[in-house]
Amino acid sequence: MRFTDLNASDLSLARHGDDLELTNVATGDVVTLKGQMFEDPGDWGVDKIEFADGASWDRDVILQNGYDADETVTVQGTSGDDVLNGTSAHDLLWGGQGDDFLLGGYGGDTYLYSVGEGSDYIDDEANSPYQLDVLKFTDLNEEDISAVRDGVNLKLTVLSTGDTITLDEQFYSSTQYWGIERIEFADGSFWDRGDILRIEESGTNLAGSQLVQSTQSNATNDDGQLYENVIQFPEAGLEVNVTNRDLLASASNQTGSTSAASDIASAEIISLSDFLSAPEHMNTATDLWYEPEPIGAVI
């Protein structure tokens, strides 16, 4: 079997019975090798897997990787603060309530998190291109969290609770595989490793309509008018790129019509692109509205 544009690092492995599944990490597409792991003598399945970079796996390597992918260990915490240690196999780690420390170790590990389960710290400590490590939110979507780079760590904040999930050394290397390779959300969307590495220290806007430092979706003003999104700037000097139309930017915890002058930060830089290109059929009276406060502020 030859992959024309994929390398070994682009795939994750899973064994299901006698079959071996190769998953494209970027797309989620699966190639199934039927009967590849059938142990009866006779050389079932393919004898060699070749990759775009010239590397290859012979039958022994294929079988070994398949056996390694067969074991899954579930490690579950309590309602208190736990320290959970994974194994060298593929672990499913769920800290539960409380502020937990999760150490996955080697193997393709999955870390589960649900809203209200406290602030967790995840240290995967495995640098392998062949094992897919996943943070899976069971009831949270992209718009429910903010993501910010904190040194070499990645900090995810649940907007409704303020709880954080810290991924240890996620940005230790852009070419190696420390940290996790995928963040999955309840609605089926996900961030792959490339998406994660694009997160900057000031935050991210990966999905286009989500936010950077802080966000509220479907916010309303005093008149009850619905806004698609609200961007909030909690500190001076924050630089944000906005590419989504119909977006209300506010420097306080209120919408633009109610923000107090005392809440306005002094040195925001807001870059707006494609903001005035709403289709004519939308009959948009005003695409962008900005009210400087206090009087005399410089635009």
UniProtKB/TrEMBL annotation:
Query: Domain Haemolysin-type calcium binding-related: where?
Result: 19-60, 153-193
- Return one GO MF term: calcium ion binding
The record's listing under InterPro entries reads:
Haemolys_ca-bd, Hemolysin-typ_Ca-bd_CS, Hemolysn_Ca-bd, Serralysin-like_metalloprot_C
Determine the domain of life of the protein's source: Bacteria
Q: Which PROSITE patterns match?
A: HEMOLYSIN_CALCIUM
Xref: SUPFAM superfamilies? beta-Roll (SSF51120)
In terms of Pfam families, this protein maps to:
HCBP_related, HemolysinCabind
Q: What is this protein called?
A: Hemolysin type calcium binding protein
